[in-house]
Design brief:
This protein is α+β, with helices and mostly antiparallel strands. The protein has helices at about 5-35, 45-50, 55-85, 90, 95-110, 125-145, 155-160, 160-190, 190-200, 210-235, 240-260, 315, 345-350, 375-380, and strands spanning about 235, 240, 295-300, 310, 320-330, 335-345, 360-365, 370-375, 385-390, 390-395, 405, 420-425. It binds the ligand Nc1nc2c(c(=O)[nH]1)N[C@H]1C(S)=C(S)[C@@H](COP(=O)(O)O)O[C@H]1N2 and molybdenum atom (MO).
Amino acid sequence: MSNPMKHSLWLRVHHWLNVPLLLLMIWSGLLIYWANDVYGVFFPSWFYKLLNLESQLADGISVHFLVGWFFILNGICYIVYLVVSGHWRELFPTRQTVRQLIPTILHDLGLRDEAPPHGKFNAAQSFAYTSVIFFGALAVASGFAIYKPVQLGWLAHALGGYEVARGLHFLSLLVISGFIFVHIVQVIRAGWPNFRAMVAGAEFPEVHRSRVSFALLIAFFLAFSATWAGLRLAPQADEAPAPFRKTLELNGKIWKAFYNSGRLNLASTNPSGKIPRVNGDIGLGGVTDRDSWELVVDSNADDQNSKKLTLHMKDILALPRTETATEFKCIEGWSEDMSFAGVKFSEFLKAYNIQAKPYVGLVSSDGEYYVSLDIESMMHDQTLLAYEMNGAPLKPENGAPLRLVIPIKYGIKNLKHIGKIFFSDMRPPDYWAERGYDWYAGL
Ligand SMILES: Nc1nc2c(c(=O)[nH]1)N[C@H]1C(S)=C(S)[C@@H](COP(=O)(O)O)O[C@H]1N2
Ligand SMILES: [Mo]
């Protein structure tokens, strides 16, 4: 608190760290958004094809949820510093700032000659900087709400629901981008000496100090870029650079721990009655006819000699029937209210006296599509082996005659057209986890 030099250095570090962090967050966020901009809202679809942006969803997700942690960490450090150092007093708007806002903007636009008197920041800066902190926090909160709308259901709820949270996330992106744009324009307008002052931290216009910190920051930025290049060039693990894979796994562990603590809200909505969307047609080649379809159940895949069960549709239909209405969510960014009927997976296990193991593997009849899941999620009350969707028997394209419905996971785990279910102590193969995506894939 007594050393202003130290303060300014810390503020500069936080401020300039935001440059690579924000750029990476915005870029990776757009990669996620673009993956499902099927209506070409942002840009026409030929634009995405041209730049090959459609196929970068997995990369976008990995980068977003790796860099996001650093962005949050930097933000928290900044806010704590702002409060502890007392700098917030210079930054946050006061009654005087409110009165000066319009005159200041008029002056900035060249419509008013003299600038209202101000301290370290003028009224417009005070408002802009304060609101960008607010929108940064909103971006994080709404981001978490759409990242984990089941596990952080309370947050999604507090923000007005999943769709609203998604809108707020998008809004904060627009506000922050707009802020960055105006910020840069202002700096260019103010001229090069002021840019140097800004590099030194706009709050600390002692230009003579700026050389050291400028060099420091360049070094810092280079170090960051080198780290980043290193990340991208790192050896691959299941189609993702190893550090991305590690982050995805770590994120999975974090959210699994949340699950175990029991703080889970059930996704539950009213089915919209629309014609259900069809997404993904891998492994739908087997027989879809209820009478000739077969299900193989291996309760211990770790033992080659374990006895396997072969079940038929009538065996499944004989089990207690449950109906659920849920909001089905695809990792590509669309969600839809759907209802399903079938047997709870937990009741299926009980009926056949199957001893649960840590992992469950499911495979389509032709072996082309396969997923694996943690047993906790499989035992969830809304996890069904479903044979009906929106009040009618499953259609072949939606997985007839039997599919997995597990609303606490993304669509990728909801395997259509099950041919085999097995249990193991080791994590069985998973189609999308082998292609750069998150294995846990929980909401
Ligand atoms: N057999 C199989 N199951 C699958 C897929 C697939 O390609 N093949 N796609 C998954 C994905 S990515 C989604 S979003 C859902 C879509 O389910 P729906 O087509 O019934 O809407 O199915 C999942 N189950
Ligand atoms: Mo999906």
